[in-house]
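Mods, move this if it's the wrong board.
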Amino acid sequence: MAKTQIPASSALSNVRYEIRGRLARRAHEMERMGYEIISLNIGNPGAFGFRAPETMRLAMIENLAAAEGYCHQKGIFPAREAVVMQQQDRGVLDVTADDVFIGNGVSELIDLVLRALLEPGDEVLVPSPDYPLWTAAVTLNGGRAIHYPCRPERGFEPDPEEVARLVTRRTRAIVVINPNNPTGAVYSRETLAALARLAEQHRLVVFADEIYDGMTYDGAEFVPMATLVRETLCGTLSGLSKVYRACGYRVGWAVFSGARDQAAAYMQGLELLSSLRLCSNVPGQWAVQTALGGYQSIRDLVSPGGRLHQSRQAIVEGVAASRHLALTPPRGALYAFVKVRRDHLPDFDDQAFALDLLENRHVLVAPGVSFNVPYNDHFRITNLPDAETLRTVFTRIEEELDSWASGKTSRGGGALRAVQ
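Not the wrong board. C-alpha cells:
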C-alpha cells in the first residue's frame, strides 16, 4: 500500500517564525555533533545565567498548596490586582482586576486578543521590523498584517503620518511594540501620542506590547501607551519573562483601559476564549504580586556598571570597531539590530550570512528578514551574554565578513538549501 504524506494546514503557508526555524535546528544538530554554539537568536535570560529574583521563587513555593487546582479563567485575584496597582502607579486609573487577563506568557495572549477581535480579511497595523509572532497570529486568525515601516534612517521610530496612510475601512487594530524588539528603539512621547490620536480617530484597538517596559538605557524614557489612549480601547501586554528573567514561568498579562464601555462584546469574547483553555499556569501566577511590588532589580542591570548595560556597550563598541557594520544604538529591550554596510558588501544576504556564521564561526544570529522587513542587510543579536563573550562574537563576525569581502566563502547557498 502506498504511503501518503499528511500535509500541514494551508493556514500555515504564510506563517513564519525563523527565530526558532531552520537555522536554530541546524545549530542544535551541530551541538549534538559536539560543537559549542554561541546562540544569540533568542532573548532567553535563563540560558545566560540570569535568575528570577529569589522572592518570586519563594512566593511560588509558599503557595503551591493553593496552586493545584484550576483558578478563575482570568487568573488569580492577587496577580490581577498587582497588575492594576502597577497601572495605577503609572497614571492609568480607570482599570480594575476585571480588566486583567493572565495568560501563559504574552505569546498566548497575543493569539487570544486577536482571535477575539478579527473577522476574515480584517487588517491589523503591525510594525516592520516586528516581533514575528504578531504577524503570524494575525494571519492564523484570518486577518491581514499591514506592516507600517519603522525606518532605520528614523532610528526605527515610525512616522505617524505614514502609518495614517495605511488605514482602510478594514483596519481594526494597531500594534505598538515599545521598547521595540528587534531594534531596541524606545519611542518618543510625541510619536506615541500621535499614534494614540490616530487610533482614536479611526476607532482602532491599540495593542501595546510592553514586555520590555523596565529595560531602557542611558536616560531613555519609557512612556506607557495606556497613559495616552482615552477614546478607544487599549490593551497593554506584559509579563514576567524579560524584566523579571522568568521566561519558563509562562506568565503574562493583558490589561484593558480606555473606552471599555464600547468593548463589552469583545471583552466577553476574550473571557470565553480564556475559559476554553480553563486557566493559565497557576504556580507562576503567585510570583506576580511579589515581582511587581518588590525591589526592581532590573534597574541595577540596565544602569551603568550593570551587566545588561555593559553588554549593550560591548555591542556598540564591537560595531564601531568594524569595517563592515553600522548600528542605531539600542535604547531599550534586549537586542541590537545590526546593519551590514552595502558599500563594502553590495551582494550581502542576511540569511546566507547567518548560515555561514553558524557553520564557520559557531555563532547563531537571527537574519533581519525574520522580522518582516523588505531589506536583507540586517541581523539581530541579544545582549544577554556577558561583555567578554560579545567581544568574542564580534571578532568572529568580523572574520566572517572579511571572508565574504575577499570572496573566500561559499556564501551559504548550497548549505542553506540543505538546511531547508
